[in-house]
Write a structure and sequence with these properties.
The complex is a heterodimer of chains A (326) and B (492). Chain A is mainly α and 326 residues long. In chain A, 67% of the residues lie in helices and 3% in strands. Chain A has one domain. A two-stranded antiparallel ribbon of chain A has the order 1-2. In chain A, a hairpin with a 4-residue loop joins strand 1 and strand 2. By secondary structure, chain B is an alpha+beta fold. Chain B has 4 domains: 95 residues; 103 residues, 2-Layer Sandwich (TATA-Binding Protein), CATH 3.30.310; 101 residues, no CATH class; 127 residues, no CATH class. In chain B, 34% of the residues lie in helices and 34% in strands. Chain B is built from 10 helices and 21 strands. In chain B, a hairpin with a 5-residue loop joins strand 7 and strand 8. The chains are: A mainly alpha (326), B alpha+beta (492). At the A-B interface, helix 7 and helix 8 of A face helix 2, strand 8, strand 11 and helix 9 of B.
Chain lengths: 326, 492
């Protein structure tokens, strides 16, 4: 059973890699065919991954999220599942699959470094709360991971768009570009609400002539910064209550198992810090002058705290959660 | 004037405390402070590692100590941040709550300039203005809008109030949570009790292993009930991983058994507001010591191990006999299962247990604080050693006789009272209940105005959304299609 689970894990990882390459090919060359193939392969990978997790649970005789390897594997599964089944329903973001699958491949590859054979749990972990506390932490982590990918892409795209704007504001080169007969439909609109101009390019964006003097730098193949910001915001807004629930469920469980709901155990501290950063992100998004880049940086810090909690706190810092470690 | 500038200064401090940004920064600082606590060893939980740091890097340790880094959660600056956060959060929430309550009671002002709103539509409909507004009212109510009439020919409607209410519920719950943590600590206590099978523990200050940690406001005294440990059992899986730890106990009130329960990991016993948790276990051999026929000791002795997860190790304990001259101390090692020990297997059950001893004589130095589990050997000399199997007696030179009478287990219970737990649970639920509408719904408003236009009516609709503006574009267009089928819609 264990062997079958591991084989399925390997197959899933390989399929994800292939799908990632397909998605990236589509991202770079816009071939519809490569997108179709990539999606099909990604779905196959998801099926193999699901099988791996289910078999792991059968082999261990319990829920398949009792140690670090299993936790990371299920996070990867949730990332792919949410992306394929929810995010991709928005057609314009399908070309982001390569980045999302890339993050999953990294998570899964890292999880093999902490691989352990399936086994029973120590009494303190043996509780109904394991199912609910850890599962909610997994789902929230997966959504935060998606939020992280979209935030990074947002920062890249926003930077690119700002550069395009700056070029457009300088009249001479921009006019030269329009006058040069490029296959562009360059429209500059004043947006008094945001106190700045917005540049919209026609459907044929990204012509490969970017960055050359006298021509508008290319806007790239990413969806617009606003779309990416919206995606990141949705993922994190969705994740936040789930993370809150995970922390609360953990506190209730800690009260039952250790006699206190909060003891500033390193795991607790870092989950609190993660919570604080993402709470800050949500507030920043609602605050004039903080949305956009500054909010995105806060989200990155939150994600960093989450990863630190999962890796360094489990493996290096000692605490009550450390037996949950590897 | 010095006092004037002081007042001004206090005012500006108060003003900045009332801003959301200050509350967030304080929360962030609290987070950073706790990070320090998670990375620097904390004296209350790991004093040995603090001492180690003082030995290895004295300068760094002194700096940490001065900054309170060895007890972050009890340090003055952590408390200060905590209190400031409470004040700031409260100062943000009071005016917001007042605003919400006032808004609920107040009559809405009809908007004067509908065309100036972000969303606007107008068109001709049949019937009188009163009828047209009536239709609009019904349509909006059907969609769950809160509608207020602005007379015959106008109305105002609002939706998504749940957002503000949810947000306030979430923030107030978080505020109460912060207070509850302090109150729970202040009014409760935590102690640890080691109870040998068959013995009785009384819930009183003096009966804990070391003085229990009692909160600042803890004054009503301990509960005074008693707990008799009937037995303690560890069950193991194949391979030696423990499956479960179970203490079977009776609770006694004034000497009468009122209930019989099992305490397991993850399943504490609650009695009269006090909770007992399974937290540890070990062996307690019953050893009789006789000196020239006179019984000196016959109680079970608590043995400890350096690593409870390593069942390959012998357990250790000590017997101190200060009444003899010279004083005698016995250092004991227990092998619960000698055959397993020899074979290098973990000793999980008691099978023909064996006690090894080393006898020392001289000065036990009992006037100084010392561990009951070991001897202070500077002024002692070893003079004998040996072992004794269960049920047997061994003679130690100097007229001593050791009888290994019985082997029992003890259980370690964490005993705790935290009157804030119920409040904590309630606030945690409220946090979640408030958070969902606070994040998922959006506040939006619509105004409708009707003016007579020939035979029919000209209907004007204006509106805006405070959040999720994109989704409102669609909602507004749909609403207008229903109300003014031939109208013109302008959405941004």
């Amino acid at each position: 059973m264990t062997e079958a689970s591991n084989t399925a894990f390997g197959v899933a990882l390989a399929l994800y890699l292939v799908a990632m390459v397909g998605y990236l090919h589509h991202f770079a060359y816009r071939r519809p065919m490569s997108l179709t193939v990539a999606r099909a392969v990604a779905y196959l990978g998801l099926a193999a991954h699901t099988l791996s997790v289910v078999l792991r649970g059968v082999a261990a005789g319990r829920v398949p999220w009792g140690n670090m390897y299993e936790y990371a594997s299920v996070v990867g599964l949730a990332v792919v599942a949410v992306y394929l089944l929810v995010v991709e329903r928005r057609a314009e973001v399908r070309r982001l699959g390569g980045f999302v699958l890339g993050s999953t491949v990294l998570i899964m590859a890292a999880s093999t470094m902490v691989y352990v054979e399936p086994g029973p749990l120590i009494p303190a972990l043996n509780s109904g709360w394991l199912r609910i506390h850890v599962l909610s932490a997994i789902v929230a982590s997966a959504l935060f991971t998606l939020g992280f990918v979209f935030t990074v892409l947002y920062l890249i795209q926003a930077r690119r768009e700002r550069r395009v704007e700056r070029r457009a504001e300088r009249p001479a080169p921009a006019m030269a570009a329009v006058g040069s007969g490029l296959p562009h439909d360059l429209a500059v609109e004043a947006d008094p609400e945001r106190g700045r101009a917005t540049v919209t390019l026609g459907p044929e964006q990204g012509n490969g002539h970017g960055g050359m003097p006298g021509r508008p730098p290319r806007r790239g193949r990413l969806p617009g910064a606003e779309v990416l910001d919206d995606l990141a915001g949705k993922a994190i807004t969705f994740a936040f209550p789930i993370w809150t629930f995970a922390v609360i469920a953990g506190a209730i469980w800690a009260e039952q198992a250790w006699g206190r709901y909060w003891g500033w155990d390193p795991k607790e501290v870092w989950s609190f810090v993660t919570w604080v950063f993402f709470a800050g992100y949500l507030h920043a998004r609602a605050t004039q002058g903080w949305r956009g880049r500054r909010a995105a940086v806060i989200a990155l810090l939150g994600f960093a705290a989450m990863v630190f909690n999962l890796t360094v706190v489990n493996l290096v810092v000692s605490g009550l959660h450390s037996y949950a470690g590897v | 004037m010095a006092s004037g500038s002081f007042t001004r200064g206090m005012r500006s401090v108060w003003r900045s405390l009332r801003s959301m940004r200050t509350a967030l920064i304080l929360l962030l600082l609290l987070g950073l402070g706790s990070v320090v606590g998670s990375l620097v060893p904390q004296a209350p939980s790991s004093p040995a590692r603090v001492a180690q740091l003082f030995a290895d890097r004295p300068l760094l340790a002194r700096i940490y100590d001065a900054l309170g880094f060895f007890d972050v959660y009890g340090s003055w600056w952590f408390t200060l941040l905590y209190v400031l956060l409470l004040i700031s959060l409260g100062a943000c929430l009071v005016p917001r709550t007042r605003g919400l309550v006032r808004g609920l009671g107040a009559r809405w002002q009809p908007a004067r300039d509908l065309e100036g709103l972000r969303h606007y539509a107008s068109g001709r409909v049949e019937g009188s203005p009163g009828e047209a507004v009536g239709r609009a009212r019904r349509a909006l109510r059907r969609r769950g809008w809160g509608v207020r009439s602005g007379g015959e020919d106008a109305l105002a409607a609002e939706k998504g109030l749940a957002r503000e209410m949810g947000s306030l519920a979430f923030h107030w719950a978080f505020f109460l949570l912060l207070i509850g943590v302090v109150l729970g600590r202040g009014f409760g206590f935590t102690g640890q009790a080691t109870v040998i099978e068959g013995e009785v523990f009384t819930e009183a200050h003096a009966s804990y292993d070391f003085p229990p940690r009692e909160g600042r406001f803890f004054d009503e005294g301990h509960a005074g009930f008693q707990v008799r440990v009937l037995d303690f059992e560890v069950t193991y899986r194949e391979g030696g991983l423990p499956r479960d730890f179970v203490s079977r106990v009776e609770v006694l009130e004034q000497g009468e058994v009122v209930r019989t329960e099992e305490i397991r990991v993850n399943d504490p016993l609650g009695h009269r507001g006090v909770k007992l948790y399974q937290s540890g276990y070990g062996w307690a051999p019953v050893v009789e010591v006789r000196h020239e026929g006179e019984l000196l000791a016959s109680d079970p002795i608590v043995f400890v191990t350096d690593d409870p997860n390593d069942a390959l190790r012998p357990w250790r304990g000590a017997i101190k006999l200060p009444g003899l001259a010279p004083q005698v101390g016995l250092e004991l090692q227990l092998l619960p299962d000698p055959a397993a020990f020899v074979a290098g297997r973990p000793m999980l059950e008691a099978r023909d247990p064996f006690l090894a001893y080393r006898a020392y004589r001289g000065d036990l130095q009992l006037t100084e604080a010392q561990s009951v589990f070991r001897l202070e050997k500077e002024r002692l000399e070893e003079y004998d050693g040996g072992g004794v199997a269960i049920g047997e007696t061994v003679e130690v030179p100097g007229g001593l006789e050791l009888t290994f009478r019985d082997l029992r287990r003890y259980t370690q219970l964490l005993v705790k009272r935290d009157p804030g737990t119920g409040l904590m649970l309630a606030t945690a639920v409220l946090i979640l209940v408030g958070l969902i509408p606070a994040l998922s719904s959006s506040r939006r408003r619509i105004w409708v105005r009707a003016v007579p236009d020939g035979e029919g009516t000209r209907l004007e609709i204006g509106g805006f959304a405070l959040q999720r503006k994109g989704a409102f574009d669609e909602e507004f267009s749909r609403l207008v299609r229903d109300l003014v089928p031939q109208g013109r819609v302008r959405v941004p």
